[in-house]
Specification:
By secondary structure, this protein is of the alpha/beta class. The chain has five helices and five strands, in the order αβαββαβααβ.
Length: about 150
């Protein structure tokens, strides 16, 4: 079949249009899965230098918090954990927050330099002693876990 000159480009145009349509992905189903947002997790940070404001804030708003984190401990050696602040204040804080139904997960920071901490962690016996020290700390204060904030290692 012979096309008039004005229609000559039509065949090429139709072929290109067909190629573009064929290259498109299959249609998406009309029913899409709902978009879910990640669950928010809220921790009440309670620094040792502000027990008179941080503890009441967590207790008074207990329904908002998933956990409370007293920022009161620092690892000083394989078996050394230094309490910053008052032992009486910490025990009262743990008791008040737990009574409000908020799990307590104290933060333990590292006061060792990177080389000394690497030495502690790389030796299986020293590492095991450190873990036992942490477990004893958690049991002694009857907390729900520990947050190991060992940033400088």
């Amino acid at each position: 079949m012979h096309l008039p000159p004005r229609w000559a480009g039509l065949g090429l145009g139709l072929a290109l249009a067909a190629a573009v349509v064929a290259a498109q992905p299959a249609a998406v189903s009309a029913v899409e899965a709902p978009v879910t947002q990640p669950r928010q997790y809220v921790t009440g940070w309670m620094p040792y230098w502000l027990p008179t404001t941080s503890v009441p804030s967590v207790v008074d708003h207990a329904s908002v918090f998933d956990e409370a984190s007293p920022f009161w401990f620092s690892a000083t050696s394989t078996t050394g954990i230094r309490l910053q602040g008052s032992e009486t204040d910490l025990r009262a804080a743990v008791s008040a927050v737990k009574a409000a139904g908020v799990p307590v997960v104290p933060t333990v920071t590292a006061s060792l330099d990177a080389d000394r901490f690497a030495s502690l962690l790389s030796d299986p016996q020293r590492r095991a002693s450190h873990v036992q020290t942490l477990v004893a700390l958690a049991r002694d204060y009857r907390v729900d876990g520990l947050d190991l904030d060992y940033e400088d290692i």
